[in-house]
Amino acid sequence: MDDTSTEPRCPRLRGLRVCDLSGQLAGAGSTRVLAAFGAEVIRVEDPVRQGRWDVTRGIAPFTDERRGIELGGAFNQFNVGKRGVTVNLRDERGKELLRRLIAVSDVVTENFAAGVMERLGFTYDTMREIRPDIVYVSNCGFGHDSPYSGFRTWGPIVQAVSGLSFLSGIAGMPPAGMGLSYMDHQGANFMTVALMAALIHRQRTGEGQWVDMACVDAGLSLTGPGLLDYTVNGRRARTDTVVDSNHSSAPAMAPHNVYPAAGEDAWVSIACRDDRDWRAMADVLDAQWPREDCYATTAGRLGAQDELDGRISAWTATLDRFDAAARLQAAGVPAAAVLTAEDRIEHDRGTLDWGLFPTVTHPAIGSVRVDGLPLHLDEDDWCIERAAPTLGQDNDYVFRDLLGLTEDELAAHREDGVI
Amino acid sequence: MLGGALAGIRVVEIASDHAASAGKLLAELGAEVVLVEPPGGHPGRRYPPFAEDVPGDDRSLWWWHYQCGKRSIVLDLEDAGGRDGFRELVRHSDLVLEGEPPGRLGGLGIDADRCRAADGRLVWVSVTGYGRETARRDEQFTDLTLQAGGGQMWMTGYDDHRLPPVRWGGDQGFHIGGVWAVIGALVALHGRVRDGAGTLVDVSMHAAANVTTEQGNHHWLVARQEVGRLTCRHAAPVGRPTQETMAVSADGIWVNTGVPGRLPRDYAQLLGWLAELGLADGFAESVWLDIGARREATDYGAVGLDPEVTECLSAARSAMTLIATTLSAREFFEGAQRRGIACGPLYSPDEAMDSVHSRARGFPVRLYYEEVDREVEHPGAPFVLHGAPWSAPRRAPKLGEYQHLAPSARLDPAPPRIGLAHRTSEHVRHEEQKCP
Description:
The complex is a heterodimer.
Chain A: E1 17-20, H1 24-36, E2 40-45, H2 73-78, E3 83-86, H3 92-103, E4 107-110, H4 116-120, H5 124-130, E5 135-140, H6 155-161, H7 182-205, E6 209-214, H8 215-220, H9 226-231, H10 237-240, E7 248-249, E8 252-253, E9 256-260, E10 267-271, H11 275-285, H12 298-303, H13 305-316, H14 321-330, E11 335-337, H15 341-347, H16 349-352, E12 359-362, E13 366-369, E14 375-377, H17 395-402, H18 407-415
Parallel strand pairs in A: 1-2, 1-4, 2-3, 4-5, 5-6
Antiparallel strand pairs in A: 7-8, 9-10, 10-11, 12-13
Chain B: E1 10-14, H1 20-28, E2 32-37, H2 61-67, E3 70-74, H3 80-91, E4 95-98, H4 104-108, H5 112-118, E5 123-128, H6 143-150, H7 172-195, E6 199-204, H8 205-210, H9 216-223, E7 246-248, E8 254-256, H10 264-276, H11 286-294, H12 307-326, H13 329-338, E9 344-345, H14 349-353, H15 356-360, E10 365-369, E11 374-378, E12 383-385, H16 425-434
Parallel strand pairs in B: 1-2, 1-4, 2-3, 4-5, 5-6
Antiparallel strand pairs in B: 7-8, 8-9, 10-11
Helix pairs in contact in B: 1-7, 10-11, 11-12
């Protein structure tokens, strides 16, 4: 039996079929979770542009010098465990295929800009006519009923306009924001939450629904209690507060920072949650100055934070980052080295013991590790063992076996560029 | 009848800092969340800032934010009577959410194994720093140390590496683990509704952070490349410039000028916009925009390899920066977006909540607090479930407010149920595939 015809191993969401028009990390990152739990996720791609609406198709990283739409490491990462078909939605026959696929699916997902599905002739109402209890999840930056609905976003844009980027930085410096597309991950995660909630609702009532997911709103919901400092106390973040995210004023903790360790660009994070942590740290520092009265309380330490940071840095700078963290952890103080990708993936017991990076075998890329899931279930746990689909890999299975097209019809569709 | 998706489902949450956001989300999805606090209340009640800057057990804005929608009772789990109360509460609940250190509840005789032995349908979600069984399970953690170990910090900061890497504000390390805890809870509840079976869900916040790196992981996994420390942009391998995406608008707000467009029409739009603003003549790189408008789509993967693509994308970036510094942040944002160019100003959270988008979408929700004798706006729903609306949450619970709560009483009305589960196509297929 070849790899592509193997049923998903995890029975948790077995029976759930997803017609998946989503892509990029913000959409594909959600449906990959369903696939890991055994759902049949059928990713629908455009044969005309060879799936390159999804910018991760065919871009770096690559395992070797070969290039091409089947060789991009990012696409494989975000689409493990899915099936793949091609449908040309510019063609009426392509639309008919999509209608037939929706008719045998439980869920339709997409993360096009608002309006794209409508222009293709697929709204929640038209989908509901095809399949009355369909769960339809649209995921875009601003949702479908905002004055900004047509606006285009990537993760870093969502982070900017939702207030998240503003919150990260060192005092006196411009915002550092986030050095990666956080809201593509969280957009995908919230999409999974919404989708599962809608499925539970359907289990209990028999009713489907449309979920209008807006990544900007998800971002805004993550900015925290500081927002209430505005709505309750009238304090505006831009003019009335200082962003200094390596420190912590709420909850109040000091010391709380990232300190230089021995070696180039080596750092260790340390947080004293309370006076007990500080007394334990004072024992580790094994010097007189930490026992001075001015440092005895959180308020005192917060007031002398810069001086405190300087003295702690002088200590950490003499130590290997892992050694500094281990000494503090042994005393019960939260501390952790700042880890590189190599540290995290190859040497860290927290990820290795978890089995966080399973291996899949891709027909073009070869054997490669990908991200697993950060939760384990005691029964019917997730399983990631199939690579991302190659373009149109499952056309025969889906169109012939599932939808009942004849070989002649399939051949004609291929000939005419419908699939 | 419309009700939240989780209406009628009762969650017992043992109060913690790091799993509070998970319980909040479950409450907002309609679950009845009963928060168990220790005598005197959870320390979060005393986290600043406070309403009107006056400290008090019921005035912490951290508490108001993360505990809204929940009910709270005080139970001393160190005391036999408190533990009996906890068992009784769990016996009448569907799901337990806890962030206790591995082993603590076992030592008290109220751990997942024992509670699940008494009720096979119980879903138990454990949210720990490093998972229940890894070698690091007993390590202490905060949001800061999670982001240090998860890759977020290594990838975020400034070009000047004498400055330390930067933690993301707003406790994102906790939020990442929190949303995965909810995903686990919902996957488990889905199984419970379908088959009546409970599940133990083991969430590692460290693992969650470690799969939230965009390209950080697969550049290493696929090509053994490290991704560098960047400012406000997509992850990329080391050696690429970083702060270039940022510019200051004419009204002094940092803006993210985004990823330059790759289609001919994006370049044409930029040329037209420069001309409209009277900036075209002074812009030396117009020639590359012109080329970009006439060639086929530029491919990001060719940056640094194909000189023409590199120049075109660089010119687009320069044009965006020039326009950004000429206009107000909002003019730049709306002007670019109306031309199909993705970019955005770095609004503060309060500016974002007051934006025309947020107001038009009805994002904020209003809750009455007697402490300030008025309704207070909270951030609202991250998505709109049209068929199972976001629960209008209740205010964060006052200390001891629900102490009278009888464990067997359900305060929220149960939703209409059709047997154990409605037979959907999903169920039919599930059963068919179980017995081929």
